[in-house]
Please model this.
Amino acid sequence: MGKSLFIYSLLPFISLFGLVLQESVDLTGNSEVKDQIHSGLVTEDPKCLDCHSDLIESAFQHKPASASCSECHQVNITDHTVNGARGLMLSAEVPQLCYSCHGDLKQIIDTSKNIHQAVLAEGQCTICHSPHSSDEKKLLVTGQKKLCLSCHNKDISEDGKKVVNIKKLISVSKVIHPPVENSGCVVCHQPHASSNNYLLISAFPKGNYAKATLDNFAFCWECHDSDLLEVSNTTSATNFRDGDRNLHFVHMNAEKGRSCVMCHNVHATMNEHLIETKVKFGEWELPVKFTPSEKGGSCFPGCHAEKSYNNVD
Model:
């Protein structure tokens, strides 16, 4: 009995000895790896991947990262392994490091009149892109639409103008523009820079009025039939017609034609056909009062008396 109690009393020390022994083994293992590095038996790249292989395990890999860490990093491998994160630095500052390969993108940014503010923000390229690998195309840090809405989840003021909270607008609206809902933002917008207004992929005018030319509204014709603007009578180009009288043509075709955004919200709205609830007229906001019907619809805005159209009979 006395001997059993004696052995029992030693159990905590035996357990502690086991932990120390295990820790000793672990440390010995780490020391062996370090000795191999110090002696030059292990090259830089294999050593990086010994610890950091998870950085390039995603579906899409940044080519420099999968080729060699030294493409972008200056590594003092001895200092790095002995002192943790020390001995590891970028070979140049971002974005200049990125531009050393992506010179075509730098040229676009340098020569475009409109630059996405995210490109100029702190962190720059790495705000949106993973430098190593990603499960998203273009090495995005998360899904494209989710990524855009992570910034566009609030009103943004720039040059005295406000970009509305797109995430909120989409979430509360009944009707969402199909490209926004199905394809995301970059089907319409350039993510880095553009010489077109609103970072669009092609031309679209600012404001509510613009001369009615195909070139001015080139962005619209990426999806829509240009007969909206070009022909006065049609039964196929648009449903906004009275009989075959093209009411888009009526509204837009003038030296000071009405822009699409005079009546439509290009992202989302509460009304069918993306019709705005209110439109800006100078400092005023005029209610559109659009009412759809089985045969067309009617509107009673501040700019004219109530009018209806019938696109069936």
In short: The longest strand covers residues 278-281. The first helix runs from residue 2 to 38. Residues 202-310 form one domain.
